[in-house]
Prior knowledge:
By secondary structure, the protein is of the alpha+beta class. It is 33% helix and 35% strand.
Amino acid sequence: xxxxxxxxxxxxxxxxxxxxxxxxxxxxxxxxxxxxxxxxxxxxxxxxxxxxxxxxxxxxxxxxxxxxxxxxxxxxxxxxxxxxxxxxxxxxxxxxxxxxxxxxxxxxxxxxxxxxxxxxxxxxx
Length: 125
């Protein structure tokens, strides 16, 4: 895979994941994009979660909304990618800051979500 194609593939994976969350919810998106063996969800006041535990947790909390991405980038070798921003419905309900860490797996020639960090943002009074 060329350097340019690797960068495009990372950005496409991030965009596809975010679209899947918006359309189908976090559980469905994680089933498709999370790296099954080594994925971790980090959420406030929770132990780090594997894919199965994260799916159950996110099904129960029903976090919904739109993505407001503030930064996105890749490592020099195009093996890691990240996206940072806010997710939620604009302050009318739960909103959170997020960090996504993606890793390229040469064994399957594909990008997978390794880490998802969700941190609640204070609601406006």
